Amino acid sequence: MKLLLTTLLILFSFTTFGQSKGFAGDYNRTLNTTENDILDYKLTLNQDGTFVFHYYSKIKNGIPPEVNKYGKGKWTAKDNLITFSSNKQEDFDEKYTLDFNTSKARFVTKNPRDKSDRIIKTKLAFVESEIPWMQRMDVFKI
């Protein structure tokens, strides 16, 4: 009985690891305007379920002209939907001020059954966020 239970446990663990979607990694999006303004979004999803986000903008006529904003917290995945959460006591300080608590992003990648030549970049498409400029933002996996 112990052998059977051990075998089933091992098979289950292989199945679980085999279905990993590879959500963890670095995601980036840089936008340049015709006036040489820069908007840069960087998101890192760590294997341990934590994330770090950095937003940088350099706008010639902006007040202030350069802005850095940071956020961090935890992420979980269910199917292709990634949910972000931040703990007010642990994840917020003078540097980390962005609140990702209600943020959700969809993981988009080319379906392995799609044998066409079209190129679909792996990305996170934000579908919900209380951060106004994060709604409908796509960040691409590096």
Automatic annotation (TrEMBL):
Keywords recorded for this protein, A-Z: Signal
Keyword Signal in record: yes
Endpoints of the signal sequence: 1-18
Protein name: NlpE-like protein
